[in-house]
Amino acid sequence: VQLVESGGGLVQPGGSLRLSCAASGFSFSSYAMSWDRQAPGKEREVVARIASAGGNANYADSGKGRFAISRDNAKDTVYLQMPSLKPEDTAVYYCGNYQPPRDYWGQGTQVTVSS
Known about the structure:
single chain; about 120 residues; mainly beta; 7-stranded mixed sheet; about 0% helix; globular
């Protein structure tokens, strides 16, 4: 199983980013996918989750109403669209999923929101 995140970077407050996560080594379309994040000095938190077929997405408070998770099962890729970024969105963002009996996560991509 390999999960490779990309698309992070430095952006000004109010800017936007689209994160991508390319998956390989498993049947991507069979599993729900998640984005988590971890800010410096804070615990890791869930941002969003999307069902295997892509029709059902759930958001934690951190992403609700702003972020949009989506997936392209033909490309084995999951995305996180992040508009209107705030300094408190600064974190390392990880994509992952649960394939019993364990979780799998990528190496993360850094998002820094600062003027």
